[in-house]
Amino acid sequence: MREIAVLLFAVLLWLGGWGLNEYLVRLRPGSRSMTARVNLAVPAIFGVCLLLVWEVLARGLPIPPILLPAPSMIVMTALQSLDVIAQDFVQTVLKEVLTGYVLGCGAGILCAFAIDRSTFLKNGLLPLGNLVSALPIVGLAPIMIMWFGFEWPSKAAIIVTMIFFPMLINTLSGLSAAGHMERDLMRTYAASWWQTMIALRLPAAWPFIFNALKINSTLAMIGAIVAEFFGSPTVGLGFRISTEMGRMNTAMVWAEILAAAIAGSLFYGIVALIERRVTFWHPSVRGGQRS
């Protein structure tokens, strides 16, 4: 009887949050500030309802904490292990992810410029890049660790391999986005390749480049955590998830997952904010600002 009451309460809680969100998304605020508040309230309500339902089910049903710890238990574990999580964050995010992200994205953009200038590279490098992007990380990680050791350079190398090709393809697509009329106009002005690139083609490519940067911000985090499963010093988000799962300390595993999710979301948000500043002229950005 208690289980039925808990399930019923969880369903009512979820339906209440759903109904509130349905009401909010149908509002037509008259000001930009109200629109921004509604846009923030909808995902916040959804997240809070999800956590509350999780808490109710984990506390009210006979579910062992080793299978599904309550969010309050996860937060308490995270607060008690802040020093350990901070060390893991520095190792995985600041050393491995940022280094691999900068190197991989930078190499992808530079190779896209080189391919744009050379038909030989376009015909020779793109198929090779496609092959490398298809390599499974679970097979590549042990090889990279043997080559570069157990420290952060091996994880950075894996990240570079993962994100290089998406950056390359999106940049090449962006460089081809400028219209023929605009290119003909630049040729009429006797503009050089670099002048055309800086004044026309690169601005047209920015939305494509930032699309790849946002995708790679999450890919880099996933690659670093998975790579740490195959060998790492005694620190790192992936290392901690693997070892604590072996100890059946599920609350600590979820605490590390929470830290990785927060770091990935912040990383993505920073890239998105920079995109809005750089591509302020793009219709998608201007349309969002008017609404």
Features:
291 residues, mainly alpha, MetI-like fold, 2 domains, 12 helices, 83% helix, flat
Describe the structure.
- The protein is built from twelve helices and no strands.
- 83% of the residues lie in helices and 0% in strands.
- It has helices at 2-25, 32-60, 71-80, 82-117, 119-133, 137-148, 152-175, 180-188, 193-228, 237-246, 250-278, 283-290.
- 27% of the residues are buried.
- It is flat and about 80 Å long.
- The longest helix is centred in the middle third of the chain and has 36 residues, at 82-117.
- The model has no long low-confidence stretch (mean pLDDT 86).
- α4 packs antiparallel against α5 (119-133) and α9 runs antiparallel to α11 (250-278).
- It has two domains: 2-63; 77-282, MetI-like fold (Orthogonal Bundle), CATH 1.10.3720.10.
- With 291 residues, the chain is mainly α.
